Amino acid sequence: MIGFGDVELHRRKLGILISAEPTLPAFGHGVRFAKAGLASGCDVYLYCIDDAVAGVGDLELQALRTQGLKLYACAYGAQQRGIPVSDLAAFAGLTVVSDLVAGTERFVSFNG
Length: 112
Description:
Layout: E1 3-4, E2 7-8, E3 13-18, H1 25-39, E4 43-48, H2 59-65, E5 70-74, H3 75-80, E6 90-92, H4 94-103, E7 106-110
Parallel strand pairs: 3-4, 3-7, 4-5, 5-6
Antiparallel strand pairs: 1-2
């Protein structure tokens, strides 16, 4: 990280993929990991895929969005599960996951 006085010129980028359904511990672990990343000053990008798309409305996850979390959800996964596309997340394809893997310093996955 390069700083100039109190201005930070580069923030660390953290990518998180969650595939676990919201009722499983792995979903909660992923959400708490995102919270810790935000608290440490990282730019945090979280992508919900597979069963995790059902959790985009999770209250804690939505609260993290107000703190700067960039939340994405798999559009195909939502379609397959009958979950309507909404403004709760940016619904996108797998190219976003590829971009997150390539564009973040750390990328972690929480699976069910």
